[in-house]
Write a structure and sequence with these properties.
Layout lengths: L1 H22 L6 E5 L7 H11 L5 E5 L5 H11 L7 E3 L7 H12 L7 E3 L7 H10 L8 E3 L11 H13 L1
Parallel strand pairs: 1-2, 2-3, 3-4, 4-5
Helix pairs in contact: 1-2, 2-3, 3-4, 4-5, 5-6
Length: 170
């Protein structure tokens, strides 16, 4: 019971903090939110802040319980942000559907993301292939972290390597 109340209080505080940055974000370059549940509208508040703050170079949402549904408005808010170079989404609940949204961001010619961290999510083989395929039209991304996802096992390793080989050959 207290854990639920604590999360609700933290979520309310996050909303208030983000509201301040929505109104005055000209100097904001980084958003680092760790160990915070973005449910109950936190994703929308964050998306509104990101949409307003066009000079962001880094967004880090570590262990924020971000699922595909919460990721979609965030990715839409990031679209067109040419200053964004680093997107850290490690230790969340992103799966193949979220990978499709991220892939569309990576395929965007205005995207300048250099580093993408998706470690410890729920990305299966199909999600990983979706990400790899999006890189065929992206020459900017320099580092993608995908360790400790469900595809990261011996059974999928040959299929992942084949997908990477095709990408590298193209």
């Amino acid at each position: 019971h207290s854990d639920y109340n604590d999360r609700f209080i933290i979520s309310g505080i996050l909303h208030e903090i983000l509201k301040v940055y929505q109104e005055n974000c000209s100097n904001l370059r980084r958003v680092n939110i760790h160990y915070c549940n973005l449910e109950n509208g936190g994703d929308e508040a964050l998306a509104m802040t990101i949409r307003s703050c066009t000079h962001l170079t880094r967004i880090s949402l570590y262990r924020c319980n971000v699922a595909d549904e919460q990721l979609l408005p965030i990715v839409e808010a990031v679209r067109g942000h040419t200053a964004l170079e680093r997107l850290d989404l490690a230790s969340n609940r992103i799966s193949a559907t979220g990978c499709q949204a991220i892939a569309s961001l990576l395929e965007d010619p205005n995207s300048n993301v250099l580093f993408l961290d998706l470690e410890q999510n729920r990305i299966n083989f199909d999600g990983a292939v979706t990400l790899f395929n999006s890189l065929s039209s992206n020459s900017r991304l320099r580092n993608i972290q995908l360790r400790e996802n469900p595809f990261d096992n011996r059974e999928d390793s040959p299929r992942i390597m084949n997908a990477l080989d095709r990408l590298l050959c193209n």
